[in-house]
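@channel sequence for tomorrow's demo:
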Amino acid sequence: FHRGYYIRARAVDHCVQDFLLKTQSHPRRQILSLGAGFDSLYFRLKDLGLLHHAVVYEVDFPNVAHQKAALIKRMKELSALVGDTGGEGVGVITCSGEDYKLLGVDLSELSELERALEEAGLDNEIPTLFIAEVVLTYMENNRSDALIQWAAERFSQACFLLYEQMHPEDPFGRVMQQHFSQLNSALHSLAQYPDCGAQQRRFLEKGWTECSVMDMNEFFTCCTPEDEQQRVRALEPFDEYEEWHLKCSHYFVLTASKGMEPSWTPLSSSMTVPHQHGPVRVAGSITAAACATHSGISGLRRYGHHSVLIKPNVILTTGGFGEEDGQHCRMKNFHVLIKHVGCWKAGCVKKANPDKRWDERLYHTVSCLSDNLALVVGGRTSPSSAGLGMLWLKFPEACNALDPDDITVELVSLQPAAEPAASRWRHSTTEVIFKGEKYLFVFGGRSAMEPVLGDWYFLHTPELSCAVIPVEGPVPESRHSHSACSWKGGVLIAGGLGAAEQPLGSVFFLRELECGFQWQTVETHPPLVPRYSHTAHVHDGKLLLVGGVWFHSSSVPGVTVIDLMTGLCLDYMINEHLEWPLMLHNHSSVFLPNEKELLLIGGGGNCFSFGTHLNPEPVSLSLNNILSSH
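structure tokens (generated this afternoon):
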């Protein structure tokens, strides 16, 4: 929430101050804020001394304008800045000072708006900035289009600043639309103008000669100075990267102008722009089918959890944040999914020692070391908490693997010598082989002190002593929320979120040598679109990357297949024949190689102010077609 509203205010301030700077040599200029609501923009600009030779006009419904005028009159600091006479407003002008006019008019009534602005003194021959900050989308499209065209036609030196939502049809967009529909405030622009390209064409067709548009991920990366980005990242403990980047990919800032000399281009940047990937070339699609588990439990509605195959056709899911006993919380209970006669059955796992603390962790890893033993590494409670260490999960040797009620787990704490290895979350833990011995390779992640880690540990199993094994080659950059898979005795690392909160597109293979290991870069073509918060599996020399978050916002990640011999990289969309949006981030997945079936468990999260969406049930993807076609 904090970052989401910050970036909106930052974008508007950036563009408004750029307009005032570029027009400072003009004897007069003006700003017209459409649907201004209770915005404090005028007061901030006035307080900063930026309104020389400038007048700010604000327009909103009469009842809003009257409330705002009354508020200004009641507060000495505000009325002093306006220099208001203190008398009642005249006609539609509810508050008036030398450089501030507040008007109560319905924006959709264009002739009425034009008459009121003329009466208030708006001059169509001087530089004018129009601001519409999440306003036009609430109007019928023919009326908002008419307003955009009127502004271009009637004003000789005009600039327009628009901030609005986009991408209505992907899972996040569907949750967003549903939210506004429930408020009886449908977003009208979205169907006709669903993305940046459509909005840009809209303005150029309505008489504007120049138009730039970018989503808020690009704005934060390219138009926000590096020191300001660092300041924002350091303000408070933060671990909601997926929600932040998805929110930013569903809002855009647009600037348009005509008749401006020199041209007005506040969204151009001298900063280095990250490589922009073109449209994702889709090789095909995969159909998603919901797995009806008929259990009546909500325990698999969660995110930030971990799922692991503990026995054939038995999947254990631990931790995360989700829905338990009718409320949202960090998950206390463990759950299993058991496949029997082609159907999945879900249930709660009994703890052999229920008094033993589990610490309800998120973003941990679970590694299955044998039929009856798994190791939990790291995880967190809150983002300001220290790492939670390691924990053994012990299962009875003989148990009925057909009934969830018959599976029990015993929790055993341990204090290994490699404690720093466990003081992290969003890391990976992968089994590797060195000289015939098994090790767990813990890589990357983040901690309460370090926003991103690039170190690694080799833990010898089963005693978990920390082994020093030489590693050569180009070291991968620090990352968290990446994927890691065992392959040929080594490990494949793909994607992740890097030091500047930028998704990474690199793939590395840690290969066993006689005397240690070696990092090797895996070249992909076309280049892998940078992503994080995905899951991954290896099958028959192919690396499968599932879901995640990327900044390429024209589509959402589905399943990417990388041929590890040739480097060929193919993207497949997921067809959701589901009754709910499928959010593939912060999920877990288990691959069943015999059936070539991928089971997706949980996923989703908080969708800005639009509500929390958790995938309600597991989803099955059949990969037969795409794996046999390679």
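heads up for whoever presents: The chain has two domains: 1-165+185-220+250-258, 282-622.
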